[in-house]
Amino acid sequence: MSQNGTINELGTERIGKLLTQYAVPAIIAMTASSLYNMVDSIFIGHGVGPLAISGLAVTFPLMNLAAAFGSLVGVGASTLISVKLGQKDYDTAHKILGNVVVLNLLIGIVFTIVTLAFLDPILYFFGASEATLPYARDYMVTILLGNVVTHMYLGLNSVLRSAGHPQKAMLATIFTVVVNTILDPVFIYGFGWGIRGAAIATILAQILSLIWLFKIFCNKNEVLHFHRGIYRLKRVLVENIIGIGLAPFFMNVASCFIVILINKGLKLYDGDLAIGAFGIVNRISFLFVMIVMGLNQGMQPIAGYNFGAKQYHRVNQVMKLTVIAATLITTTGFLVGELMPKLAVSAFTNDETLINISAQGLRIVVMFFPIIGFQMVTSNFFQSIGMARKAIILSLSRQVLILIPCLIILPMFWDAKGVWLSMPISDAAASIIAAIMLYKQFQTFKRHAIEQGLTIDKQ
Fold first, then answer.
1. 63-98: per-residue pLDDT in tens?
2. In the record, what terms sit under GO molecular function (predicted)?
3. Out of 42, 131, 188, 400, which residue is the most buried by the measure of CB atoms under 10 Å away?
């Protein structure tokens, strides 16, 4: 089947089949990506020590900030490309691809220069101490030197998925994970490079995957491919890309400040090891979050294409199926965190004190996990159909309007436990807001479907 035929299936094939076709590769890719981060933490925890785990956790805010700029371009562009392909506007889709390359290059270089110039003060501000700073610095210097590669790899992989190649996007991520997993023990143990070895393994794996992505986009038989005349930045395209990408951008920026508050609160009441405990809990909970994000990535081109084609009944169908699947995933995370917390956290460390702090934190964090999948899908849904403002509101409601005040107020009454409790409380409140906004949007789509002579559940 031609590439045009594959893309057109987004508007004609059964929704259940499409979601499976697009989401399964994305879920595998995101699960692999999460395991890729977990592998780093496991090797660092057992090969370098518990303080190295804390040093790695100190870098999370900076990693979130880097991801914010990456998602600003990658997510915004991939969403816009899905809509343009649904509208058969291939010329604009090509120009978006070219703008992705240029924007990632420019943003990646500027971010690296600025952060390297002020790295130590930044890490201290993020919660580092004299004991954990050397580990955090060794890791981040290498990661930042490869920041352009990371941005380009993530951006092009998102575009590849939206261009009708979810399997290839999945393979690129899996390849990166496999290479990183092989190189981690070699660099950390074999070469004795410690935590820096984990960072080097990460960047080398991404370089190899990026080379393959460039090869795919250089193929002129692809609907989207590199060619002359698409790399000049177009103001209207840049504004649209950034406008749609603002939702995940603000979400990641908010995550940066939230992790700073968490690190500082835990360090104040429980010391450096508590920061390491949050790092472990974050890795475990993020595994299930990443699976839902993979599900969202599978939904995104289907929802974007059909919204662009004004097939609102299909937009509703893919949303409902995605919510059901996401709820099953996050409920599994809830059961793991509540029934076997010590078993889960012991994979990262042998230190008994760190295990106990981490297990207690994990149980609290996953308290309302069964409903967080719904909130994540709803936010991504609005983003997928180009409703950036609603997506931003949902993202910021949890991260800024609810979680930050909780992180400031609750520790005044319950010390470190108040820090941990802030997370599930914000999950529950944000899910209620998402339910209200989604209900109103469904009513709008229902009216559109009736006007078209369709029913919401029509295949």
1. 878 888 887 888 888 888 877 877 778 888 888 888
2. antiporter activity; xenobiotic transmembrane transporter activity
3. 188
Q: 309 or 450: whose pLDDT is higher?
A: 309
Spatial contact of 366 and 281, defined as CB atoms under 8 Å apart: no
Structure confidence by residue, pLDDT tens digits, 225-265: 888 888 888 888 888 888 888 877 877 787 788 888 999 99
Tell me, letter by letter, the H, E, C secondary structure of 300-332: HHHHHHHHHCCCHHHHHHHHHHHHHHHHHHHHH
3-state secondary structure of 151: helix
Cβ neighbour number for residue 254 with a 10 Å cutoff? 20
How far is residue 47's CA from residue 39's CA, in Å, rounded to a whole number? 12
Burial class for 443, CB neighbours closer than 10 Å (0-12, 13-18, 19+): exposed
pLDDT at 448: 66
What Å distances lie between residue 424 and 285, 368, 371, CA to CA? 12, 6, 10
pLDDT tens figures, 142-177: 999 999 998 899 888 888 887 778 778 888 888 988
**CB contact at 8 A, 326 and 295:** yes
Q: Which secondary-structure segment (H or E) carries 20?
A: helix 15-47
Q: Which amino acid is at 104?
A: N
What is the DSSP secondary-structure string of 335-403?
HHHHH-HHHHHTTT---HHHHHHHHHHHHHHTTTHHHHHHHHHHHHHHHHTT-HHHHHHHHHIIIIIII
Residue 194 region, left (φ>0) first, then alpha (ψ -120 to 50), else beta? left
Sign of the Cα torsion 52, 58, 181, 377 reads positive
DSSP 190: I
- Give per-residue pLDDT as tens, 293-322: 889 888 888 888 888 777 777 888 888 899
- Residue 417, judged by CB atoms within 10 A of its CB (0-12, 13-18, 19+), counts as middle
Closest CA to 22 of 153, 158, 214, 219: 158
Helices 147-162 and 133-145 cross at an angle (nearest 10°) of: 60
d(CA 63, CA 67): 6
Integer-rounded Cα radius of gyration of the chain: 21
